[in-house]
Each structure stands twice: as structure tokens, then as C-alpha cells.
Write a structure and sequence with these properties.
- The chain is mainly α.
- It folds into 3 domains: about 120 residues, Arc Repressor Mutant, subunit A (Orthogonal Bundle), CATH 1.10.10; about 80 residues; about 45 residues, no CATH class.
- A 3-stranded mixed beta sheet has the order 1-3-2.
- Strand 4 and strand 5 form a beta hairpin.
- The longest helix is centred in the middle third of the chain and has 16 residues.
- The radius of gyration is 36 Å and the shape is rod-shaped.
């Protein structure tokens, strides 16, 4: 526990605890947020204490994770005086299981937040595009997005996925070639999602229809009744038959085509 007056302070009007409260966060941030969420009021949640209690993470990793939780709307640090009439200033840390946007925290500072719990929304898993955006900060902390920014950018990310982009391609587009310092990850992400949007997928043309061959002469055709062309079928007189001379020429033409020789087929007289 932290000294009296310090330590964890829970924000009001949080939704009841449930499975998946921090599933939109990267694994490290989700683990640290889950741990803080289960600590009692007044528990020490400074970097050194958390790094000591969570042996898997060092102080730098914990500090980075806490900053990411602040941007995601789960942590809020407020500078306050130690007490009335005192000149010493300290930072109070408020924790909210329910992610809050900047406007909510501003209302909180003014005391314009109801003390009773807000209605619990229908439990739904975050869309895949939202999960990808929420995890971008795990790849590069400079691009850690808040819950509000993830929700606002989800339609753009969904368009990427609809056009066939993979998760790694989407993350790479948001984290490659970043400037040394990113002042507004949300604005930069929006610009990149729009400017680097992949083209619509073009459907490949259908394969050519398979051509069959006459069993008698080998002439190509799309459909042959009984497997033989009209000239080779022995089904009685044929009004369309052009005579033996044409049949012989036709078979020569077929043989020439097969041999790769370019020639012409005489016009029907």
C-alpha cells in the first residue's frame, strides 16, 4: 500500500468487471491493467513498485505500459496539492476499468460525472480491425492509440481488410518510417490509412472454356454431339455439307494448325 493519500484511486461510474475488459490492449499492457484493476484503493502503482511485483517486466517496460494505458484512457494523472494550505504538489493517479476519452476526464475534473455506475452495454467482442489498431502501440509505442482513436479509425482499417490487406501489412503501414517523435498518433494513423489504402481487388478473368476435339478428325469445337463433328457423323444426308473437296481441305487446315503452320481457310462458296 502507498502512504495515505497516495496510490490507486478508482474513477467513478465504471462498468462491472468482466472477461475481456482489456482485450483491446497489447498483451503487456493488458496484463498490467488487469493487475492494477484488482488492487485495492490506495495500493501503490508507481513504476518501481509495479516492476518489483510484476517480475516479468522491468521499470522501463512498466513505464512504457503505464504511458500507453494513459493514452488508451484507463489511467489519468492529475497534479494536486498534498492538502489545503499546503504548497507541495504531487500527482494523483486515477484508474478506470472502462476506457475514457479526453472529454470524459475533463468532465471528471469539473466534478461533472455521476457517481452511480453507467448502464452496462451489451457485451460484444471488439471488431478485428479495432484489435489491430489497439495493438499497434505494442509494435511501436510512438503509435499507441487511445480507445477513442481506435474506434474512430476502425472503419478505415476495416476497408484495408476488405481489400485483402493482412494484419501485418496494416501494422507495417502505420509503423514504418516514423519520425523520431510522434505528437499525434491518431492524426498520423488517419493520414496513413487514407493515403496508403491498397487498391480494390480485381477479380481474375475466368479461364478459357475447354475445347473438345472430334473423335474422328480431331477438329476443335466447344461441344460435339456424340463426340464427333457433323462431317464425321454418319447420320444421313446433311444439308450443310459442302462436299468431299471441302472436307479434305478442312482436314488439311486442321493438320496445319496442329503443326504450327499459319494458313487460311477458304471461304465458303
Amino acid at each position: 500500500m502507498a502512504p495515505a493519500g497516495y496510490g490507486k484511486r478508482s474513477a467513478p461510474a465504471q462498468n462491472p468487471r468482466r472477461k475481456g475488459d482489456f482485450s483491446h490492449l497489447p498483451a503487456r499492457e493488458a496484463a498490467i491493467a488487469t493487475y492494477i484493476d484488482r488492487l485495492p484503493e490506495g495500493a501503490a502503482i508507481d513504476v518501481k513498485t509495479l516492476a518489483k511485483e510484476l517480475a516479468a517486466y522491468g521499470q522501463q517496460a512498466v513505464r512504457t505500459a503505464l504511458n500507453a494505458l494513459t493514452r488508451a484512457g484507463h489511467l489519468f494523472r492529475r497534479r494536486e496539492t498534498v492538502g489545503e494550505g499546503r504548497t507541495q504538489w504531487v500527482f494523483r493517479t486515477y484508474f478506470s476499468r472502462t476506457a475514457r476519452d479526453e472529454s470524459w476526464w475533463r468532465r471528471f475534473l469539473r466534478g461533472d460525472v455521476p457517481a452511480e455506475a453507467e448502464p452496462t452495454p451489451t457485451e460484444e467482442a471488439p471488431p478485428p480491425a479495432y484489435r489491430i489498431l489497439a495493438a499497434v502501440g505494442g509494435t511501436d509505442p510512438r503509435m499507441a492509440l487511445s480507445a477513442t482513436e481506435c474506434a474512430q479509425l476502425t472503419p478505415l482499417a476495416e476497408e484495408w481488410l476488405a481489400r485483402g490487406a493482412t494484419e501485418s501489412e496494416l501494422v507495417r503501414a502505420l509503423t514504418t518510417g516514423l519520425p523520431p517523435e510522434v505528437h499525434s498518433p491518431g492524426a498520423l494513423a488517419r493520414t496513413r490509412l487514407k493515403s496508403k489504402l491498397p487498391p480494390q481487388r480485381v477479380q481474375a478473368p475466368p479461364p478459357p472454356t475447354h475445347l473438345t476435339e472430334c473423335e474422328g478428325c480431331g477438329a476443335p469445337a466447344r461441344a460435339l454431339p456424340g463426340g464427333r463433328c457433323r462431317a464425321c457423323r454418319d447420320d444421313g444426308p446433311n444439308e450443310g455439307w459442302l462436299g468431299e473437296e471441302f472436307d479434305e481441305e478442312f482436314h488439311r487446315q486442321v493438320a496445319a494448325v496442329r503443326a504450327g503452320i499459319s494458313t487460311f481457310i477458304p471461304r465458303r462458296r
